[in-house]
Amino acid sequence: MLSAEPTAVAAEWAAKPAAGAGCVLESSPESLPDGYQTTTARIWVDGKTVSIVSPSAFDAGGKDIGIAVDEDPLVPLDRLGDPRTAVFDSRYATLVEQFKRGLRARVQLRFWPTWPATGTHSATFSLIGFTRAYARLDECR
Question: Which of 2-11, 32-41, 111-120 bottoms out in mean pLDDT, i.e. has the lowest?
Fold first, then answer.
């Protein structure tokens, strides 16, 4: 019998030097609509924050930007680091543990401009390979 549940496929998770000191673990990009055109998003993880970055600017006014791992509830963003970076730092340890045990992370994003509002848009990232890559994050430093 075929399952209706989508199968997670291996994603590229790579540790890369970050701007300034240290390294960041970066997912492969996923395409999604921003309400007007197709854009991309990536997940970045460093030693203190989980971030979602995109070439399109986010709209945090709706308070509905977040990450949900598998069947876990949506974890809302803490703040925008800049218009194109959604930052999750208060629940960093929780998200990393969910990433380690999970199969996929769904990001829910809202993009600017806020008028006319286009609603939220989602992309799903595979978490296969995350744990191994995260264990190597310190080696990159």
Answer: 2-11
Among residues 24, 23, 32, which one has the least CA distance to residue 54? 32
CB 39 within 8 A of CB 81: no
pTM for the predicted model, two decimal places: 0.88
How far does Cα 87 stand from its chain's mean position?
9
Q: Tell me which residue has tokens 């854009």.
A: 39
Candidates 28, 35, 31, 41; CA nearest to 67 is 41
CA distance 38 to 79: 24
Question: Do residues 42 and 26 lie in contact, with contact meaning Cβ atoms separated by under 8 Å?
Answer: yes
Q: Structure tokens of 37?
A: 């055109």
Residue 25: how many CB atoms within 10 A of its CB?
23
Residue 33 burial class via C-beta count within 10 angstroms: exposed 0-12, middle 13-18, buried 19 and up:
middle
From CA 49, how far away is CA 129, in angstroms rounded?
Answer: 19
The three-state secondary structure class of 120 is strand
